[in-house]
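haha ok so turns out i had the wrong file open the whole time. this is the CORRECT one, sorry everyone. sequence first:
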Amino acid sequence: MDCVIIGGGVAGFAAAKAIRSSWPDKSVVLMDSENEVGYYRTLLPQYMSETLTEKKLFFRTPQDDPQLIVKTGCRVRSLDRLMKRVILESDEAIGYERLILAVGGRPIIPPIFKNTFLKGIYPVRYLFDARPVRKAISGHPHIVILGGGLVGVKTAAHFAHTGLEVTVVERENRLLPMALSKRASKPVEAHLDRLGIRLKLGCSVNDLKSEKEQLCAVLAGEEWIDCQMLLLAAGSVPDIEFLEDSGLLEDGKLLVSSALQTLDENIFALGDAVTIKNGGPHTPWTWPQAVSQGKHAAANLFRSPPVPIQVTTRVNAMNLFGLSLIVLGAPVSGAKVVSYSNPADGVYRELFIVDDRIIGGALVGDITDAGPLHAMMIAGEKIDPQNLEHIKPRGTAFSKRSWSDLVQYRRAFIMPVEEFRE
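then structure:
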């Protein structure tokens, strides 16, 4: 086979489509352990909360292409680089000329759940888990979500919007600890509180209660919370166990060059599975990056030398039923922070600056100028950290409160990021 792709998510399909377009004479096999592939994983919260139909969940429509074979329900056991073949758990061996690893991640399952078979516990990761959640939520009005990251917060907002009682349990003392600073997380927490979502911060789920093998309560910190459903949204880790003996891992990580090439010149890797060596280890695990990397890896497959990818920013955007949020990049130690705050309207905007260049930030409650700010970050354009025009909202995104009333709420300041995150 000319090219084998492991992974049926957006990165894998973006690569497959690009290969068939750029190299129409090349045959492609795409394989995945799930029985169904080609769906928007990011839309699972909407699907589970019954605000999105299953048909709209899929981005892939089957096409009549004899040069593209999609194999589902098959998990890879190992990789034989010497013979250039992929070994499946069924013992089937598939040879390749070029290989793309787009395996994505697998959900983090805390130890307390490893040997638990209670009804009502589901990871927020796969469609086969989302289906029973969607079917059962009408009879399970009390729901606990373990994890206050992007997935957990989004899931909580969609479930609360349908009238369910939702509690979010997060082991850190704030929401979105991997994406936002402590100050930026405050308006998000306040908004979820207004939606009726209960927040249990600084603790985890330590014990479970059940009746007839059905979950009925969880112990969060020192408090028992009644619930019939527990959703696990504690994050994910790269699904790369099958590569342990391949020689491709360094300190347990699948490192790739800026061209998305592994230590093996015939193997490229992308998406949630990889860490890019681009100046320093970088993990741009987002949906736009998965699409971009899929296309880029496909273009590099038969190109010599392969071309580095230009943009590896990790931007996330969402709307939590009335609160818009864009993450340009997580806080970085040693950076300066330029910020703007309007607590009355739930607005907080911040930029992280290193060497007078934007390297990240967040826009909460008012996302005006997100595009230009991202463009400045990509271009490495220098700015004056003292010029607060870069962070002040422009346009009409503020609420109806008059400008004269807003003056007392505005704050703009610069401080080291270590102090800022306390």
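The longest strand covers residues 347-354.
again sry for the mixup
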